[in-house]
């Protein structure tokens, strides 16, 4: 059986799941990570549930069903978890050379963005600059994920875009970003920094997360 990590590695190389097929159902890569990823006309469900039960709740031919409320609600009730959000999923390749902004790596911070990252990611690393914060860590199926935060006083000046771009200089691995679609400023920043939208994702997290 193919693993979620394999599917994500293929996607990072530009090899997306075959459209108009699936859904593909795979085991959870860890007790922490469960959810749904929607690629173009192909959904991937990673949950330690009976495959027949999952398929019985998805209407044939409805490619939107896995990210629609009725199915997500069934997953929540069955797994005793809650949907964290439905995010845009973006991907970028690493860049050579130094980042376009001076960053200071820190090892101890109580910033809410960092505390959240440590709940959902491993090997979390944090950098700061005047007015901004950059976090990279290993998230779903071990992929490298990035999150940024810009102080309110520093918004509207391109710092978000610069931080998103800088992240590509800080790792040799493909870099994934989960972005709330309603956060238009963040969506614009990541797209301008060279990230490509490749799908959508809903993660199921424990109620206490």
Strand line-up of the largest beta sheet = 1-3-2-10-4-9-8-7-6-5
Cα-to-Cα separation, first versus last residue: 29 Å
Which strand-content bin applies to the residues?
A: 25-35%
Largest sheet: 10 strands, mixed
How does this model look, in words?
The protein has 209 residues and is of the alpha+beta class. Helix content is 25%, strand content 31%. It contains 6 helices and 10 strands. The protein has a 10-stranded mixed beta sheet with strand order 1-3-2-10-4-9-8-7-6-5, sandwiched between helices. Helix 5 packs across helix 6.
Sum this structure up briefly.
By secondary structure, this protein is of the alpha+beta class. Helices cover 25% and strands 31% of the residues. Strands 1-3-2-10-4-9-8-7-6-5 form a ten-stranded mixed beta sheet, with helices on both faces.
List the main descriptive attributes of the protein structure presented here.
6 helices, alpha+beta, about 210 residues, ten-stranded mixed beta sheet
Topology:
Blueprint: H1 4-12, E1 24-26, E2 35-39, E3 42-46, H2 51-56, H3 69-79, E4 82-92, E5 104-106, H4 112-120, E6 122-129, E7 132-138, E8 144-150, H5 159-167, E9 175-179, H6 184-192, E10 196-205
Parallel strand pairs: 1-3, 8-9
Antiparallel strand pairs: 2-3, 2-10, 4-9, 4-10, 5-6, 6-7, 7-8
């Amino acid at each position: 059986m193919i693993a979620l990590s394999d599917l994500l590695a293929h996607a990072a190389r530009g090899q997306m799941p075959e459209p108009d097929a699936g859904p593909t159902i795979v085991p959870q890569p860890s007790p922490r990570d469960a959810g749904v990823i929607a690629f173009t006309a192909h959904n991937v469900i990673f949950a330690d549930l009976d495959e027949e039960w999952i398929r019985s709740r998805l209407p044939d031919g409805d490619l939107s069903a896995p990210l629609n409320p009725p199915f997500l609600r069934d997953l929540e009730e069955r797994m005793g978890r809650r949907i964290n959000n439905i995010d845009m999923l973006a991907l970028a390749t690493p860049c050579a050379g130094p980042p376009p902004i001076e960053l200071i790596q820190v090892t101890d911070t109580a910033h809410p963005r960092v505390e959240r990252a440590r709940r959902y990611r491993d090997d979390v690393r944090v950098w700061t600059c005047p007015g901004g914060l950059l976090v990279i860590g290993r998230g779903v199926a071990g992929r490298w994920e990035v999150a940024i935060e810009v102080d309110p006083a520093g918004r509207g000046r391109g710092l978000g875009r610069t931080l998103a771009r800088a992240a590509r200089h800080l790792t040799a691995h493909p870099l994934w970003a989960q972005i709330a679609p309603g956060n238009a400023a963040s969506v614009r920043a990541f797209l301008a920094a060279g990230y490509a939208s490749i799908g959508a994702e809903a993660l199921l997290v424990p109620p206490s997360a």
